[in-house]
Amino acid sequence: MRQWEKHVRRVEPYVPGEQPREERMIKLNTNENPYPPSPRVEKALRELRADTLRLYPDPEAALLTQAVGDYYGLPREQVFVGVGSDDVLAMAFLTFFNGQEPILFPDITYSFYDVWANLFRIPYEQPPLREDFTLDPEDYYRENGGVIFPNPNAPTGLGLELSAIRDILDHNRDVVVIVDEAYVDFGAQSALPLIEEYDNLLVVQTFSKSRSLAGMRIGCAMGSPRLIRYLNDVKYSFNSYTMDAATLAAGAAAISDREYFRETVEKIVKTREWTKDELRKLGFSFGDSQANFIFATHQSCPARELYEALRREHIYVRYFNKPRIDNYLRITVGTDQEMAVLIDFLKTYLEK
């Protein structure tokens, strides 16, 4: 080891989903929206004047925070935005999980949580999900330095009732509780109605899934004015200009188009339910996903084998080589046509 390497912060990084660059493929591995963003986004980008790009963007991101606030009926002081929900969550870890007690999050969940905890040297514990992959609120009654969980969970797709979230909050009044709602628009109950009652609740959402803007990187957090003020203090200490002008314009345009949003989400949910029915016929089992993906296992064919067979046909799904879930595939819901191709291939392959 070289002398300078003794001072390097070493972490095991998060591994993002594969991003193949093939002309003809079916990409069902990173939970992207199969439909384009609202036409208002294209209009906003066309109208963006290039000469304004010589100026720094608004550090307060007022255009976007106001648009998010208007959509959810909140003042700007209760809205925080960042470069995707990953950026927002990283800022939240850095801001709120600064105690001596371990933070809590499930053993099967979004795999960035333990990366951030290790990066920021935050102690953590992972209460195991039940055998059916549901979360037990009682596991979060213990003393801790903060709580975070997705709703619906990833990669399982299972959602929590609002009463269960309230239960967790009631037993964690003295720490910050973060509900990561990246997939909430596809069927789960949002915890947003609780933020006026619990000043320690932070709700995080993303524009990457239901609003078709994964390529723009937009995330937001909503909570009490005090929570948002603390988040902004850390953000301004890290990078004052996190949101560029084009992203601000695109985000504000996307969230303003309520009708297009509803239509797109309804199409994905309808396709998801059709896909569930077809997968059951083929011998797959899975929980009742409330996200834009299905987390499925087959009764006889190993998940890794299916993953590799699909990949050879340029159909990409997500496989996790991890304890408890190494015989499951996470399948993003694509268009009707894409899911029909997937089902047809599985029928042929499983009949061999």
From TrEMBL:
PANTHER family: HISTIDINOL-PHOSPHATE AMINOTRANSFERASE, HISTIDINOL-PHOSPHATE AMINOTRANSFERASE 2
Stretches of the chain forming a coiled coil according to its record: none
Pathway info: Amino-acid biosynthesis; L-histidine biosynthesis; L-histidine from 5-phospho-alpha-D-ribose 1-diphosphate: step 7/9
Gene Ontology terms for molecular function: histidinol-phosphate transaminase activity; pyridoxal phosphate binding
Aminotransferase class I/classII large domain mapped to chain residues: 24-345
GO BP field: L-histidine biosynthetic process
Assembly: Homodimer.
Catalysed conversion reaction: L-histidinol phosphate + 2-oxoglutarate = 3-(imidazol-4-yl)-2-oxopropyl phosphate + L-glutamate
Cofactor(s) needed by this chain: pyridoxal 5'-phosphate
A family per Pfam: Aminotran_1_2
EC number of the protein: 2.6.1.9
Family that this chain belongs to: Belongs to the class-II pyridoxal-phosphate-dependent aminotransferase family. Histidinol-phosphate aminotransferase subfamily.
First-level EC class: transferase
Protein name: Histidinol-phosphate aminotransferase
Species the sequence originates in: Candidatus Egerieimonas intestinavium
Keywords: Amino-acid biosynthesis, Aminotransferase, Histidine biosynthesis, Pyridoxal phosphate, Transferase
Residues found modified as N6-(pyridoxal phosphate)lysine: K209
UniProt keyword annotation of Amino-acid biosynthesis present: yes
